[in-house]
Inverse folding.
């Protein structure tokens, strides 16, 4: 014979557990197995719900990034309004004041056409415009 033991192999292998049979299994062990199965189901549900929350948070992150970009664009536009209103005021200041004659049906003159000028020349142009305004008023 060989040097291997001749014990039957079936005694070393674990028998598959049958949930319903209490033959050879203690009720405490069956209860513990059922408890672990319920815990596993709860963990699977928690995993699925966590994945759904993670997906919703990613979508929220994208929406907030879009909202942030839009807010920055609006802030940029609003920061330019002061300059736009100042330019309109300057153009309107050059208009002659209409006479208070109600019988005339003429439309009042419109402000001068506004032209976009690079901002690097803005201080010099503003000083020039103020100098002309002082010359006209003086």
């Amino acid at each position: 014979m060989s040097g291997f033991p001749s014990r039957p192999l079936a005694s070393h292998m674990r028998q598959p557990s049958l949930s319903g049979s209490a033959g050879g299994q203690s009720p405490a062990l069956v209860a513990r197995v059922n408890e672990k199965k319920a815990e596993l189901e709860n963990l699977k549900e928690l995993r699925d719900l966590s994945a759904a929350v993670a997906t919703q948070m990613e979508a929220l992150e994208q929406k907030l990034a879009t909202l942030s970009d839009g807010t920055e664009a609006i802030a940029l536009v609003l920061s330019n309004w002061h300059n736009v209103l100042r330019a309109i005021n300057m153009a309107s200041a050059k208009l002659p004041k209409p006479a208070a004659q109600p019988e005339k049906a003429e439309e009042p003159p419109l402000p001068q056409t506004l032209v976009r000028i690079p901002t690097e020349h803005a201080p010099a142009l503003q000083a020039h415009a103020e100098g002309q305004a002082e010359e006209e008023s003086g």
